[in-house]
Every structure is written in structure tokens, then in C-alpha cells.
Design a protein that fits this description.
This protein has four helices and no strands. It is mainly alpha-helical.
């Protein structure tokens, strides 16, 4: 007579080790992050365009001129960062 343990089907090995499963779960979605970054950049670019246009309004230009220059500098840095991330992402795959 067979014992109870010998009637059981053999256990399958785990498909992935706990470490590899953890890495798959913890791995960030870089495309989603870059997408959100791109949307945020577009919002700032739109705000910059609005301020730049308002700068042409008599009496307003002097008040917002420094803000427009600051936003332009920020946009330059954001674009540079976006490009660096976009180029770096393939190396993480």
C-alpha cells in the first residue's frame, strides 16, 4: 500500500526566485515616469508661453520679465534632464 506522501504529485519548482520576483515588483515603470515628466514639462512650457505673451501687455512686462527669464532657465534644465533620462532608459532594460 502506498503511503500518503507518495500519492502526492511532485512539487514544482518556483517559476522565479524570491529575489527575481521582488525585483520585478519593485522595478519602476520608466516609460510612465518619463511620460509624467513630459506632461509636467508641457504644462510649464504652456505657462511660459502665457507669461511671455503677457509680457507684451503695456505695464505688465516689467513686472513679469524676471519671472519669464527664470522659467526659461528652468525649462532649459528640464529639457536637458528629460533628454538625459530618455537616453539613459534603454540601458536599464
Amino acid at each position: 500500500m502506498a503511503t500518503r506522501d507518495s500519492n502526492r504529485a511532485p512539487r514544482r519548482a518556483a517559476a522565479a526566485s524570491p529575489t527575481s520576483r521582488k525585483n520585478a515588483v519593485d522595478r519602476p515603470d520608466l516609460d510612465a515616469i518619463l511620460g509624467r515628466f513630459s506632461e509636467a514639462l508641457a504644462l510649464v512650457e504652456t505657462a511660459h508661453s502665457a507669461l511671455d505673451a503677457a509680457q507684451e501687455t503695456p505695464g505688465v512686462g516689467r513686472a513679469i520679465g524676471a519671472a519669464v527669464l527664470t522659467i526659461e532657465r528652468g525649462l532649459t534644465e528640464l529639457r536637458r534632464t528629460y533628454t538625459a533620462l530618455d537616453l539613459a532608459i534603454p540601458s536599464f532594460r
